[in-house]
Design a protein that fits this description.
884 residues; alpha+beta; Immunoglobulin-like; Zincin-like; Neutral Protease, domain 2; five-stranded mixed β-sheet; 27 helices; binds diaminopropanoic acid; binds zinc ion; protease; alanyl aminopeptidase activity; Peptidase_M1_pepN
Length: 884
């Protein structure tokens, strides 16, 4: 395998202006006939035409209707001497969708045929210049059996359809927008659609369709509503209208990713389309809303303006994640619901991206090199990329950001561009901003990997009545990168009196205070900021709303944190103070090797938070959730996952017992009245009630008291929605109560024919808190269950990924059995689906941070996979990096 480097980028030697494709569709053998109008790029010297192709069976090649000599070289089809500067290339080849278990290119799922082309799947359909800076206008004719494939879809507009001999029919589609091949899509299947016409602000009518298999139409209402809301939002917030006559979403059960933004024809993992109150949880409803929005928003940020090369992936992904996060916040509504969204996003960032930045796969938001681009659809490119965009938004303000977006589209609509182009547009639209003044320092966020450490120390001078805050930053070395430069860090802050009052903020040199919250801009390695008129000791509330993706060391004591927990006006920092108090106790218990004994101030702080009148239940749920084992593991070294689990479980036991009466109050108080709505208000109440129930069952399991487990079983049986049913089941399973087994059996019997619900059944068992190796043993048993398969990515993720990536104590065992299973399954999966396997392989990324005997055993398992000769380049890259 070869390394592709960003600095080696060259413009394409040829352009493809139009692509006229015909598919004779068949699961065993599909014939692809392609007619391409090609033009030489006259800016470059004459070169051979080199086309990408993978797993194709070539039948013929014609240039301007004549046969031409060609050769194969390094997986490319090379035509040394194309006739002229502009010519027609005709290619005919066959492919086998049913043999395509990689789910990249054209593949079979159920009885239908579907495509996935990002990043490099189009070359598995036909020979092409399969790179995002080559954009063509596509006309696609689909021919196939009318019974098997009654629905034939491709991008753009339907221009013709009709019947053919032999029980076949055809459909012809034309997409007027030039697009890169990764946005191409085809669907041939037996589907039904929910349809809706909408009128956009310009007065144009558009047809929206959500396609699913028969029998699933009643689960498409939420996806359709989310799509309509997304269209309205993008027009209102960014003046970006729907530019298509028809916008289609198609749900596919076998899908490597969440969804795909193909122009006008989005393909979705069923998980992000299908939902009814009986089968989907509040979290699922939220996920659908945000993924539908994400893919829809790509129509502008990704499709109208796309990436010049795959190193620029965050240009579209970071920006589009930022947009879907903002959309979800606007949909959630109230300030506290927005804060709940933000906390969720930051938790995900810190549990997935921070470990990535600290491990062997650390890479900049704009990577410099890759072996397999599929390995770079990462938390860094997506979530850290979104944080980089969010910092720009913080620096230029909401209006300034909208102006930057407008300039970006004015300059680049219809082009394939770079991250630099986006940052430049943002800066040029806001010339007076700190972003524009320090653009070079800001852009290091794209170039330097690693999570910055932000150190903050305050010094109160009683005589001068000043408070001087000294901020400094340090960026750790990462594989292949050292000696890094300071980055621009926006630090949002407030100062509180020890009684919790917000203080007016006036910096030295200013005429008057400027409110009680502001953003300091750190651009150097170290800078000091002096506030005046500070008559007493203060508690700083730094990095409000998580204003930069950094690790903060502010030296605050528990007493300081208790002030913030009780009084901070910034909901994020209030939550953060509670997390830090909990983390301090976990670390202390790990340090002295004794059982945790929770102190009264902490328990009382948690109690008053839970009981605080008027505080959002969703926020209470988050504030009463202890930092996860994965998060804690990143705060320490030589991690012993078993010990960590024991300490955290003991803390949960104590919170369950000490707050028993309060949990019972919370359960009673947060029952939802009336019909099910997946909105922020109801889902917050359900989340807190379910948390309370889990705590009550936990306490009951400790004391042997039967009432709460009985109530949980009753709730499990009677629940009218999946959130409550699963919550009750999880309470029993989480406490290892004897009622868990009958409940699991009943759940299986009820939902065995609902694949997405069955995924939950597998997942629930894989993520149960480990106890004496029972959870690991259960996962091994479930691998042999007739409903388990590695062929369906959702099923594989539900059981194996959840075990290895989300249940440290079940996975990291002193007998190394988890690692043995990991290695076996990486190898087995790799032969079926390399993208899935390499993703799974990453669950051992952080092996170097483990204590012995885990570390050596993990290394041995990785080395065993590395010794395999026939690994895919996807998995090879992950394994090699892990051992470097
Ligand atoms: N581009 C897709 C998305 O992020 C996934 N590859 O929406
Ligand atoms: Zn995306």
């Amino acid at each position: 395998t070869t390394l592709v480097r960003r600095e080696d980028y060259l413009a394409p030697a040829y352009w493809i202006r139009t692509a006229d494709l015909t598919f004779d569709l068949d699961a065993t053998k599909t014939i692809v006939s392609s007619k391409l109008a090609i033009e030489r790029n006259s800016a470059l010297p004459v070169q051979p035409l080199r086309l990408h192709g993978e797993d194709l069976n070539l039948l013929r090649v014609l240039v301007d209707g004549q046969s031409v000599s060609f050769r194969h070289e390094d997986g490319l089809l090379v035509i040394d001497a194309p006739a002229a500067d502009a010519f027609t290339l005709e290619i005919r080849n066959t492919i086998s969708p049913e043999k395509n278990t990689q789910l990249s290119g054209l593949y079979a799922s159920g009885s239908g045929l579907f495509t996935q082309c990002e990043a490099e799947g189009f070359r598995r359909i036909t020979y092409f210049l399969d790179r995002p800076d080559v954009m063509a206008v596509y006309t696609v004719t689909l021919r196939g059996d009318a019974k098997k494939y009654p629905v034939l879809l491709s991008n753009g507009n339907l221009v013709e359809q009709g019947t053919l001999d032999g029980g076949k029919h055809f459909a012809k589609w034309h997409d007027p927008f030039p697009k890169p091949s990764y946005l191409f899509a085809v669907v041939a299947a037996d589907l039904v659609a929910r349809e809706q016409w909408v009128r956009t602000r310009s007065g144009k009518e558009h047809l929206l369709q959500v396609y699913v298999t028969r029998g699933e139409l009643d689960k498409t209402e939420h996806a359709m509503n989310s799509l309509i809301a997304s269209i309205v939002w993008d027009e209102a917030r960014f003046k970006l209208p729907l530019d298509l006559e028809r916008f289609m979403i198609v749900a596919v059960p076998d899908f490597n990713m969440g969804a795909m933004e193909n122009k006008g024809l989005n393909l979705f993992n069923t998980k992000y389309v299908l939902a009814s109150p009986a089968t989907a949880t509040d979290v699922d409803f939220d996920g659908i809303e945000s993924v539908v929005a994400h893919e829809y928003f790509h129509n502008w940020t990704g499709n109208r303006v796309t990436c010049r090369d795959w190193f620029q992936l965050s240009l579209k992904e970071g920006l589009t994640v930022f947009r879907d996060q903002e959309f979800s916040m606007d949909m959630a509504g109230s300030p506290s619901a927005r804060a709940v969204c933000r906390i969720g996003d930051v938790r995900a960032l810190r549990e997935r991206q921070f470990p990535e930045d600290a491990g062997p796969m650390a890479h900049p938001v704009r990577p410099d090199a890759y072996q397999a681009i599929d390995n770079f659809y990462t938390a860094t490119v997506y979530e850290k990329g979104a944080e980089v965009v969010r910092m720009m938004n913080t620096l230029v303000g909401r209006e300034g950001f909208a102006a930057g977006m407008a300039l970006y589209f004015e300059r680049h609509d219809g082009q394939a561009v770079t991250c630099d182009d986006f940052a430049q547009a943002m800066a040029d639209a806001n010339p007076a901003s700190a972003l524009a003044q320090h653009l070079g320092s800001f852009k290091r966020w794209y170039a330097q990997a690693g999570t910055p450490r932000l150190n903050a120390r305050g010094n109160w001078n009683a005589e001068a009545a000043t408070y001087t805050l000294t901020l400094s930053q340090q960026l750790p070395d990462t594989p292949g990168q050292s000696g890094k430069q300071p980055q621009l860090v926006p630090v949002a802050l407030g100062l509180l009196s020890r009684e919790g009052q917000a203080l007016p903020l006036q910096l030295q040199g200013e005429d008057a205070p400027q409110g009680t919250e502001r953003v300091l801009v750190l651009t150097e390695a170290e800078q000091s900021f002096t506030f005046i008129g500070i008559g007493a000791e203060v508690v700083p509330s730094l990095l409000r709303n998580f204003s930069a993706p950094v690790v903060l060391d502010d030296g605050l004591t528990d007493a300081d944190l208790l002030v913030l927990l009780a009084h901070d006006s910034d909901a994020f920092n209030r939550w953060e103070a509670g997390q830090r108090l909990a983390l301090n106790r976990i670390k202390a218990a790990l340090g002295h090797g004794e059982a945790v004994q929770l102190d009264a101030p902490f328990v009382e702080a948690m109690r008053s938070l839970l009981r605080e009148p008027g505080l959002d239940p969703a926020f209470k749920d988050l504030a009463l959730t202890l930092p996860s084992e994965i998060y804690v593991a990143e705060q320490i070294s030589d991690v012993d996952p078993q010990r960590l689990h024991t300490v955290r479980e003991a803390m949960l036991d104590q919170l369950a017992t000490a707050l028993q009466a309060d949990w019972a109050w919370a359960w009673d108080e947060h029952q939802v009245q009336g019909g099910y709505r997946p909105d922020a208000e109801q889902s917050g109440r359900r989340a807190l009630a379910n948390k309370a129930l889990a705590m009550l069952v936990r306490a009951a399991a400790l004391s042997g008291e039967p009432v709460w487990p009985g109530k949980a079983y009753q709730r499990f049986k009677d629940a009218t929605n999946m959130t409550d049913r699963l919550g009750a089941l999880e309470a029993l399973v989480g406490a290892h109560h004897e009622l868990a087994q009958p409940a699991l059996e009943r759940f299986y019997a009820l939902f065995r024919h609902e694949p997405l619900v069955l995924d939950k059944w597998f997942m629930l068992q894989a993520r149960a808190p480990e106890k004496n190796g029972q959870v690991f043993a259960q996962v091994k048993a479930l691998l042999k269950h007739p409903d388990f398969t590695l062929g369906n990515p959702n099923r594989a993720r539900a059981l194996l990924f959840v075990l290895a990536a989300s249940n440290p104590a079940a996975f990291h065992r002193t007998d190394a059995a988890g690692y043995v299973l990991w290695a076996d399954k990486v190898i087995e999966m790799d032969a079926i689906n390399p993208q899935l396997a390499s993703r799974f392989a990453r669950s051992l990324d952080r092996w170097r941070n483990l204590a012995e005997p885990y570390r050596s055993a993990a290394r041995e398992a990785i080395a065993r996979v590395a010794a395999k000769a026939e690994l895919s380049s996807d998995t090879r890259e992950i394994i090699e990096r892990a051992l470097q």
